[in-house]
Design brief:
single chain, 607 residues, mainly alpha, 6 domains, two-stranded antiparallel sheet, 28 helices, DUF4158 domain-containing protein, DUF4158
Length: 607
């Protein structure tokens, strides 16, 4: 594997001072403790003490030594010279003897309890790299920085940049080859042929099956949902859905799927056989999950669209019938006025209402009010005219999607299975009278069950779809083959799967699987921190411990406010002048005018 993943800047920065240390870094890494001063006092010559101090603090700060100690920044040398009370004028001319420099390095490694990168340390880093490569998807350049930080934290002297880069590349290459072999070994000969066929375009076709399958839907309609379900069936027809890959590193599988999603068929066909089959297998399984999510996204958007259209139709119909409702209300108003008139005898009340208003007109008005002033569920009213649109995709949806759910979704799942059995037909087809009733809420009951013992099939179907739409959004129902709509509990490792991955996860996090070791580490950190606070408490002027009512109270002296510098004030003014006096939306449109960045996005509802 090539090792040119390091940029020139990153390679030049490795084990070097790329800038002067900050004041905080000077205080942390370049402060000479009394023990350091006592160690350096064993050297007789001033320039030797200063050179050894430079190497000591460089090892603390960088985790390694410079090729020549004289390459240290002047600020570092000046800070250390002031603490040692020696001159730094000619030290770079006198501290140049290689034997002296190397002797000092060996002594400093022993004094600071560092370890040289060889043998056991190389093995431990290699094992750590294997765990990182198996459990993460970071780029090699980032992993190189993480390995550097890991070595510094473990107090190991950093090796050469090329040595570390080659080790990282070798680990990645071996991990990849082992993964490819494992995946290909789980495929049969027929499955390998089907995967290879995805990269070959049919005669007369311009696109390969792989290109067609990974093209997601872009319209929201019944035919588009049927096409998305047909695409899902074609993905399942490849026949690799059941190939087990759950025990393999998920991070590596994600990287393979991402590569297959972005690459053309020709580069994929030129890969080695093991890598090609592994890449296509992982991609097809990932594509099946995303295609399932696409189907449910389309279903969600389609139900929303039908509801919006139904709401528009309902409002238009409502406005059209307001005149009829007003006329009927005036007729009933006349009857009510007669009913409330105390001068009309109760014995002749009904006859007078019929004489003045008319029985036919009164019955017609009551029927108009009953039909127009209904208390049905708004969802029922807006979906009542959408059954014809639903029938376009319902058979394919029932056949192509399997659903599971939480215990609260049990009535809905029973109704979904009932609709599946109805659509399948045959002798075992259940009668509509046996349709599960708990899924129907009270607001739908009058429309779904117009007569006792009878079921309105159209209203029942719309009711189940509406309830499914709500349950998918609440995640009460999930599709086992989906990713975003899948069971969120399925991502948790349990039982044997966790025991298999436990060591690799612990190694990647640099943690022990033994609780006693972790507790001892935390106990030691707490003891060390407590001792440091106790030792420095007498000299700490910002912290005081006061006794109030027999209890100790900690009082922290607030930090003094630091005045803003002239440079900061000037920088703020320059930034204010350069900020465009426009709204954010206008600024985005202006940027889009010369970059066309919105062209890279295709929204699901563009149709």
């Amino acid at each position: 594997m090539p090792v040119e993943f390091l940029s020139d800047e990153q390679a030049a920065r490795y084990g070097r001072y790329h800038a002067d240390p900050s004041p905080e870094q000077l205080a942390r890494f370049f402060y000479l403790s009394p023990a350091d001063v006592a160690f350096l006092a064993t050297y007789r010559l001033p320039h030797t003490r200063l050179g050894c101090a430079v190497q000591l603090c460089t090892l603390r700060f960088l985790g390694t030594f410079l090729p020549a100690p004289t390459q240290a920044p002047a600020m570092v040398v000046r800070t250390l010279a002031e603490q040692l009370q020696v001159s730094s004028d000619d030290w770079h001319l006198r501290y140049t003897r290689p034997n002296t420099i190397y002797d000092h390095q060996a002594q400093l490694v022993a004094y600071l309890d560092y370890r040289v990168f060889e043998g056991r340390q190389a093995f431990r880093l290699t094992r750590w790299l294997y765990a990182q490569v198996s459990t993460s998807t970071v780029r090699p350049s980032i992993l190189f920085d993480l390995a550097t930080a890991h070595l510094v934290a473990q107090r190991v002297v950093l090796p050469g940049v090329s040595l570390l880069a080659r080790l990282l590349a070798r680990v990645r290459e071996r991990t990849g080859r082992a993964l490819y072999r494992q995946v290909q070994a789980r495929l049969s000969g027929v499955q390998r042929d089907l995967l290879d066929a995805l990269l070959v375009a049919a005669p007369g076709e311009r696109l390969t099956p792989l290109e067609l399958l990974r093209t997601p839907p872009t319209r929201v309609s019944g035919p588009a949902l049927v096409a998305a379900l047909r695409r899902l069936d074609q993905i399942r027809a490849v026949g690799v859905s059941a190939v087990p890959v759950q025990d393999l590193p998920e991070a590596r599988l994600t990287r393979l799927a991402r590569h297959a999603q972005l690459a053309w068929a020709q580069p994929l066909s030129r890969l080695g056989e093991e890598r090609r089959h592994a890449t296509l297998l992982v991609f097809v399984q990932t594509l099946e999950r995303t295609a399932t999510d696409d189907v449910l996204d389309l279903f969600d958007n389609l139900l929303t669209t039908l509801a919006l259209r139904g709401e528009t139709r309902r409002r238009r119909e409502r406005l059209r019938t307001l005149k009829d409702l007003d006329e009927a209300a005036l007729v009933l108003h006349q009857a009510v006025c007669i009913l409330l008139d105390e001068a009309v005898p109760a014995a002749t009340l009904r006859q007078q209402v019929l004489d003045r208003v008319g029985e036919t007109q009164l019955r017609a008005a009551a029927e108009v009010v009953q039909n127009l002033a209904r208390d049905d569920d708004p969802a029922l009213q807006v979906l009542s005219g959408s059954y014809a649109s639903v029938r376009r995709f319902l058979p394919a949806l029932l056949a192509g999607i399997s659903l599971e759910g939480t215990p609260s979704a049990k009535p809905l799942l029973e109704a979904w299975r009932f609709l599946k059995a109805q659509e399948a037909g045959g002798r075992g087809r259940p009668k509509w009278a046996a349709a599960p009733r708990p899924v129907v809420p009270k607001s739908w009951a009058r429309r779904v069950f117009p007569v006792k013992g009878e079921v309105n099939p159209q209203a029942y179907t719309l009711c189940v779809l509406d309830r499914l739409h709500q349950a998918l959004r609440r995640r009460e129902v999930f599709a086992p083959g989906g990713e975003r709509y899948g069971d969120p509990r399925a991502e948790l490792l349990r039982g044997e799967a966790w025991e298999t991955s436990r060591e690799a996860v612990a190694r990647a996090l640099d943690r022990s699987t033994d609780p006693a070791v972790e507790l001892d580490r935390l106990r030691q950190q707490l003891r060390t921190a407590y001792q440091q606070v106790g030792d420095n408490l007498a000299d700490n002027t910002a912290l005081q411990v006061l006794q109030e009512d027999g209890q100790a109270t900690i009082v922290l002296t607030p930090l003094a406010a630091q005045a803003e510098s002239a440079d900061l004030t000037r920088l703020r003014q320059l930034l204010s002048v350069r900020l465009p006096p426009v709204e954010l939306a206008a600024l985005l449109r202006e940027v889009d005018a010369f970059t066309d960045f919105t062209g890279a996005f295709t929204h699901l509802s563009d149709g």
